[in-house]
UniProtKB/TrEMBL annotation:
Pfam families: OsmC (PF02566). It comes from Paenibacillus oryzae. SUPFAM superfamilies: OsmC-like (SSF82784). It comes from the Bacteria. This is Peroxiredoxin. The lineage of its organism: Bacteria, Bacillati, Bacillota, Bacilli, Bacillales.
Length: 149
């Protein structure tokens, strides 16, 4: 078995609920819509999660389509998910995260349906983000560092 590769990201709270996230040499802003107390300057974390799933599936599609003889003329993923916000707002004893996530692949191709279905089944099995959402992950606090002025 190969040694796992470690990926890293950081999140730095800015004004209000705006957060600057960074990984390698890239950064972007995550925020909340005004209805949830933000300034609407970026996706919120749960939207970014859905976007990450769609992006991951798209990348896997690009990488593996040729191996299945599927020509991708165009590829879209529409992703949606359901969250009961009472969990986040601590109003009831429901989980704060997604209960359901659904996605639709829109594939423009002249490849036969059977070949596309075989390819999609493989694609779903190899998407790291999809796998991380569908199966338990060991999520734990590594450390708390308290800094004083």
């Amino acid at each position: 078995m190969a040694t796992p590769q470690t990926f890293k990201a950081s999140a730095h709270l800015q004004e209000g609920v705006q957060v600057k996230v960074a990984s390698r040499n890239f950064e972007f802003i995550i925020d909340e819509p005004k209805s949830l107390g933000g300034t609407d300057t970026g996706m919120n974390p749960v939207e970014a999660l859905l976007a990450s799933l769609g992006a991951c599936q798209s990348i896997v599609a690009r990488v593996y389509a040729p191996k299945f003889g599927v020509e991708l003329k165009d590829f879209f993923v529409d992703v949606e998910g359901d969250i009961d916000l009472d969990g986040f707002f601590n109003k009831s004893d429901v989980r704060p995260g997604y209960s359901d996530i659904r996605y639709t692949f829109r594939i423009k191709t002249d490849s036969p349906k059977e070949k596309v279905e075989e390819f999609v089944k493989f694609l779903e099995s190899k998407c790291p983000v999809g796998d991380s959402l569908a199966n338990p992950v060991n999520l734990k606090l590594k450390d708390i560092i308290i800094e004083s002025e």
